[in-house]
């Protein structure tokens, strides 16, 4: 593997020849392998196949680096060298550990030095590897895998690659002149007549190409759902990586911009959530809970888990109340004053909010009524213009109806002439129909006779086979009795240590069965005792739960009585002067709308009486047109029916 320049050129050519949307990767590699085996040895062939298949599989990873190189530093490079840079990038990322720096240096030096120096300095730059290259690769593969298997080795090889780049820069500055190879002299060798000629290696047999398997039918095998679940999990991980990358990019200047700590942010969010939960924008005022949803309408049977969980909750609340009372007894402050002030502020905020909502509601109604008044005026003007248009259209329709009536009369006469011509062909079609029916009857009789004859022969053959089968089954059903003599008390006589007779085995089994029954009985008694203890514990918990619920119901009734005694927000809104002024304005607008509607209705009725004669003439024209259309359709149906009756019914 000395001519790396030719190998790199061959790899770039193969990548140019691959069409991803028209060829399969496996088929392309198989075709290329057969071509390369004829041209190169096995080592070069395997090296080329590894590079080509790797560049095709890792195209997304390589395009991230190569495309960015073209956009920023390779604007003067040819687009035809894209695959050459991809091959060099693949060798540097995936094969540098395997081939070593020496072979990598030979590969680089076999190419254009200026291009390789520019590309390798861009690829192995630490600022590029640790920032955007790692970020883009993390969007394709897992971030931990990228950092461990790709970024880490590249950073580890970076110092040694810098030495290679210095060598390339020195060669670029000094100008590389081709050295003349020393002239080779012929060296004589002694004859070895007694040494046999080495045996040539046999040509390996070609591996037979396997046929492509047919895809499995969906009714036989369906792909498992795990693949879909893995794909969904992969998408979620990708979105999570994108979110983490976005947060890292947006928060990279966090040191220069002072921000609040996580504890402060969390406390502020909790306070905001508590305030939002206390607001009642969508509260519904009802007359009470329906009878079907009463708390004590039907008894609810609790299971064991619910009883224990609720009992533990009540015990925890009871312990908290005891601790609070102990702190109060020791001299701690009582937050009742603050809670009362907080409740008053909430009620004031609710009243202001209701007042603002009612004001907006009335203003919306007023604007709606004003818009309705404007629409009524526009509708009235449109009706006047439409009435004038209708009168002009009526005159045009009368002229069109007269022309249409004359055309229809001419068409009716033409249809009657065509119908008379069809009646002459009925007699010939009837004769042809009778002849065809007679031929069909003769053919049916002959086929019926042949079928009857074949059926008789098949029945005779079937009866003969059934008779033979019955005889064979009768012979096989005869029982074969063989007497068996067995003594239960004798052993088999094999001289084994654990050998015993059948009677002894039965006795031992009876003893073992009795021991198992005693063990099961003891276990059953133990389980019953545990069950009784557990039931007693549940009963105690139920008593505690019932006591706590009774106390909670009494407290809820007390709070409900206090809430009923308080005046409702709607009563307070009825006394507001600004809202009363808005209601008065709304009533005036509604009265204006009613008056305008009444005036327009009266004018419309007068205009309708004025144009009664015009509408009557138009209605008469419409009825006449509908009657003529109906007569025309009946004439066409009669003509079509007569034509179908004259056609022969061929078989």
From TrEMBL:
Residues 173-199, 586-623 are annotated as: Disordered. Residues 599-613 have a biased composition (Basic residues). It comes from the Eukaryota. Residues 441-468 form a coiled coil. The keyword Coiled coil applies. The keyword Coiled coil applies. Keywords: Cell projection, Cilium, Coiled coil, Flagellum. PANTHER family: CILIA- AND FLAGELLA-ASSOCIATED PROTEIN 99 (PTHR34649). This is Cilia- and flagella-associated protein 99 isoform X1. The lineage of its organism: Eukaryota, Metazoa, Chordata, Craniata, Vertebrata.
């Amino acid at each position: 593997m000395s001519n790396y320049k030719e190998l790199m050129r061959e790899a770039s050519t193969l990548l140019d020849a691959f069409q991803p949307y028209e060829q399969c990767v496996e088929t392309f590699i198989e075709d290329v392998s057969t071509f390369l085996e004829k041209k190169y040895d096995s080592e070069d062939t395997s090296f080329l196949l590894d590079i080509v298949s790797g560049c095709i599989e890792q195209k997304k990873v390589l395009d991230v680096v190569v495309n960015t190189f073209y956009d920023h530093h390779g604007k003067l490079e040819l687009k035809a060298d894209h695959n050459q840079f991809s091959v060099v990038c693949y060798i540097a990322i995936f094969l540098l550990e395997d081939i070593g720096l020496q072979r990598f240096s030979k590969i680089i030096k076999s190419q254009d030095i200026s291009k390789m120096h520019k590309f390798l300095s861009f690829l192995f730059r630490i600022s590029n590897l640790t920032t955007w290259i790692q970020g883009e690769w993390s969007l394709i593969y897992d971030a931990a895998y990228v950092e461990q298997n790709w970024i880490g080795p590249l950073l580890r090889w970076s110092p040694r690659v810098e030495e290679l780049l210095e060598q390339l820069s020195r060669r670029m500055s000094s100008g590389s002149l081709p050295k003349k190879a020393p002239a080779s002299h012929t060296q004589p060798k002694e004859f070895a007549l007694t040494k046999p000629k080495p045996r040539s290696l046999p040509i390996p047999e070609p591996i037979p190409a396997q046929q492509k398997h047919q895809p499995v039918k969906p009714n036989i095998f369906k792909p498992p759902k795990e693949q879909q679940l893995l794909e969904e999990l992969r998408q979620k991980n990708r979105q999570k990586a994108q979110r983490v990358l976005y947060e890292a990019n947006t928060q990279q200047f966090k040191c220069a911009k002072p921000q609040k700590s996580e504890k402060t942010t969390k406390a502020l969010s909790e306070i905001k959530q508590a305030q939002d939960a206390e607001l009642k924008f969508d509260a519904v005022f009802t007359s009470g809970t329906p009878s079907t949803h009463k708390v004590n309408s039907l008894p609810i049977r609790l299971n064991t888990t619910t009883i224990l969980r609720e009992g533990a909750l009540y015990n925890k609340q009871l312990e908290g109340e005891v601790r609070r009372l102990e702190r109060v007894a020791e001299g701690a402050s009582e937050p009742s004053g603050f809670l009362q002030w907080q409740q008053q502020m909430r009620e004031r905020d609710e009243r202001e909010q209701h007042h603002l909502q009612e004001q907006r509601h009335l203003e919306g109604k007023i604007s709606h009524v004003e818009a309705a008044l404007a629409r009524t005026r526009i509708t009235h003007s449109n009706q006047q213009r439409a009435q004038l248009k209708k009168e002009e259209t009526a005159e045009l329709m009368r002229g069109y109806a007269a022309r249409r009536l004359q055309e229809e009369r001419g068409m009716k006469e033409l249809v009657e002439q065509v119908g008379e011509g069809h009646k002459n062909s009925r007699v010939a079609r009837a004769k042809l129909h009778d002849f065809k029916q007679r031929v069909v009857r003769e053919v049916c009789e002959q086929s019926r006779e042949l079928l009857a004859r074949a059926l008789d022969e098949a029945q005779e053959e079937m009866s003969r086979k059934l008779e033979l089968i019955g005889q064979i089954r009768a012979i096989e059903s005869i029982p074969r009795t063989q007497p068996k003599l067995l003594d239960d008390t004798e052993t088999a006589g094999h001289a084994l240590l654990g050998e015993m007779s059948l009677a002894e085995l039965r006795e031992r089994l009876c003893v073992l069965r009795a021991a198992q029954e005693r063990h099961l009985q003891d276990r059953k008694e133990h389980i019953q005792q545990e069950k009784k203890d557990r039931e007693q514990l549940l009963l105690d918990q139920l008593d505690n739960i019932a006591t706590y619920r009774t106390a909670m119901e009494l407290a809820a009734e007390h709070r409900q009585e206090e809430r009923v005694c308080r005046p409702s927000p709607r009563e307070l809104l009825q006394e507001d002067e600004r809202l009363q002024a808005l209601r008065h304005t709304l009533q005036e607008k509604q009265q204006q709308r009613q008056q305008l509607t009444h005036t327009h209705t009266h004018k419309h009725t007068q205009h309708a009486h004025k144009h009664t004669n015009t509408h009557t003439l138009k209605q008469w024209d419409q009825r006449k047109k509908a009657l003529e259309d109906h007569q025309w359709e009946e004439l066409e149906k009669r003509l079509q029916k007569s034509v179908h009756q004259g056609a022969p019914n061929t078989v």
